[in-house]
Structures are given as C-alpha cells and as structure tokens.
Amino acid sequence: MDPTSALPALSSEQLADLIALLPTVNSVELKLSVPETGRRSAIAALEMDPLQAQLRQVVFLDTPDLALDRRGLVLRVRRIQGKPGDVVVKLRPIRPDGVPDAVRENSAFSLEVDALPGGFTCSGSMKHEARDADAKAVMAGRQPVESLLSKAQRRLYAAQVGDDGPPLDRLRVLGPVTVLKLKWKPANFDRRLVAELWMFPDGARILELSTKCAPRDAFTAAAESKAFLASQGIDLAAEQQTKTRLALELFAGELAGEGAPPTVT
C-alpha cells in the first residue's frame, strides 16, 4: 500500500507541497472531526472513557470584525483543570522559510502541519504558561491579555499585526468554550489518540480525533490511522468542522449583535 494514499483528496500539487514542507516543521498532527450522527458509536467503538477526560476552558481574543483572523493570527487563552493555563500566539497559515531566525530559534516556538481529510495547513505557535488566576481574570475582562504574554509573544504579535493592526488593548474576549480532552491508546492500535469535545454555548458540539507524529512518519501514521478508524466504523468522508473557525464566527457574531463582550462567571 502506498502510504500517500492515506491522503486521497490531495492533488498532485498539494502532495508535492506537503512533501517539501515536512522536513522544515517540528511535528505533524493528523485530525478528523466526527459528525454528530456518528459520535455515540465512535465513543463506544474506540472505548473512550469520559471520566478520564480533562476539563478545559478556552477563549480567543480578536476584534468584532476578526481583524486578527484576517491577518492569519490567532490569540488563545486556555485554562486547564488541575494545571497552569497557557496563552498561545499562532500564525496560520505560515511558510517556514518566512519565519525570522530569532523567532524560529526561540524554544517556545514550534512549526506544525495540521492535516485533515482533503487538506493541510502549516502553523507556527508560541506558547507561554499562565497562572490559572491570571487566565481566569483575562477571560472575565478584569485583566489585560498583555499581562499574560511573554516579551517574545508581544514582539511576534506586533510584527504580525503591523502598524495598522489592532493593539492588544482593543481586543475582545471571544468565548468561553468548555472542552473535554481525553488522551488514550485504543485496543489494537499502537498510537495514542486524543479526543477533544468542544461544547459551545449555543448547543453546537465538535468531536475531534487526532494523533501527533514526527514529520518523517506522517504518511505512515496517516495510513495506519485511516485503516484503524475505518475498521471501527468512523466516517472518514464526513464534512470536516474546525474548532477555531466555529468559535471565532460564533462569538464574533455575538459581539456584533450584543455590543458587549461575553464574560466568565
């Protein structure tokens, strides 16, 4: 079996781009969203134990008209049950050869390819740990997001938004979203899977399955994951949903309609 057949929807041009991209990134994450009609059967088939899941809370920061999103910039704050939270500045999409050396050499920065049926995206992320109390205060609008960012993150943000982009103090809270995250190794599968259930306040749900691998193992991991999930009855051809896109559009719409940022209580 040709391992590249694990990505059947990619054109020959996309495939060539991906092959050239892989040696320049740090990791690859293979993702698949499970349609609503298949969630209960997927949970049962993969023996997911919800009592082992970790509770998280996520917000994004942007303007009501999503000025950061249009610039390929995502700013996310996350609280994690029983652990410190984090703040992430993510550039997406990005070409590795366009990343300045000073950014690429920062240990907090990583390049990753997100691959899902029909396509892939390269992103660059800079993560910084945040105290839970500070993350909660930012989510509630009681503390500026700038207080969570490292100096390197502030420089990266400023470089990406440019002189005409929104300053940090103009950003609004988009969220929160409640997330359950489960890491486990299913029976008869040698790779660890991650399941994230994103529960939006309007009742929408996204269940995403993923696994990470080294770039050199991307096609093999994709082929093995595809074969295993198909054997468990997971619909690999279902329309894909992306967590960040749904969150940005939902909460930006709320800001536009209500004229006030949502808060965390």
Would you spell out the secondary-structure blueprint of this structure?
Layout: H1 12-21, E1 27-34, H2 39-45, E2 54-62, H3 67-70, E3 73-80, E4 83-91, H4 101-104, E5 109-116, E6 119-130, H5 132-139, H6 151-161, E7 172-184, E8 193-199, E9 205-213, H7 218-231, H8 243-258
Parallel strand pairs: 1-5
Antiparallel strand pairs: 1-9, 2-3, 2-7, 3-4, 4-6, 5-6, 7-8, 8-9
Question: Could you please describe the fold and organization of this structure?
Answer:
With 265 residues, this protein is α+β, with helices and mostly antiparallel strands. The protein has a single domain (6-258), classed as Hypothetical Protein Pfu-838710-001 (Beta Barrel). It has helices at residues 12-21, 39-45, 67-70, 101-104, 132-139, 151-161, 218-231, 243-258; strands spanning 27-34, 54-62, 73-80, 83-91, 109-116, 119-130, 172-184, 193-199, 205-213. The chain has a 9-stranded mixed β-barrel, surrounded by 5 helices. A hairpin with a 5-residue loop joins strand 8 (193-199) and strand 9 (205-213). It is globular.
Brief characterization of the structure:
This protein is an alpha+beta fold.
